[in-house]
Every structure is written in structure tokens, then in C-alpha cells.
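Service request form, structural biology core

Requester: graduate student, group of Dr. S.
Request type: structure prediction, single chain
Budget code: on file
Notes: please return the result as C-alpha cells.

Sequence provided:
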Amino acid sequence: MSHQTIADALAPTVEAYKEKVMQHTWGHLAPKKAKSYHGEIVFVLSEYGDYTPISTHFDGLDDSPWFFQDMLDFIADNAQEHGVIYRFSGEYRNHHFKGIVLKLLDVKG
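Core staff response, request fulfilled:
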């Protein structure tokens, strides 16, 4: 049996364990279901292809692994041009962002 086959066989168990550890460690910081958090994210798609949040603020929402991953996914979907600074304003609810994204500055000139 190859290493890859063993890894594939154990993957569901490992993933369930990781999720349990995350919940026990940071679960108290997780966004509440059906609650809206209003705020904004300022972000950029760098010249090197990095999706980078510059600043974030959502009323009543603590940082957590779930929020961070949702934010990176949102930035990846909405940052279209390298070297442009964007601002999202709106709400975060049930792991989804709803609002408007505006270009603030094109640093390419």
C-alpha cells in the first residue's frame, strides 16, 4: 500500500479532527449564525498575485479562522486588477459578504 493511498484513506478522519480542534480552540470566536456584522475591508491584489487585506472592521465580530478564510475567498473573487486598492462596505452574514466593492486607488499610475 503506497503512502498516498494511506493518506487518502485517513484524510476524512484527519479533517474531522482538525475541525474539532479548531472548534475547541477558537469556537468562541466563530461568527454567529443568522447574525449580520456590518463593516468594511480594505484590500489589494499585489503585483505578485497576493490577495492582501490591509484593514478590516466589523462591529461585534472577532477575528477567527472562519472569518479569515471567508475574507480571503471574498478578496480572491473581487480583486481583479493588480496594484489596485479596493474597499468593501457591507455586511458579513452566514459566511457570506454582501455589499459594494469600490476601487480606492490604482497605484500603477
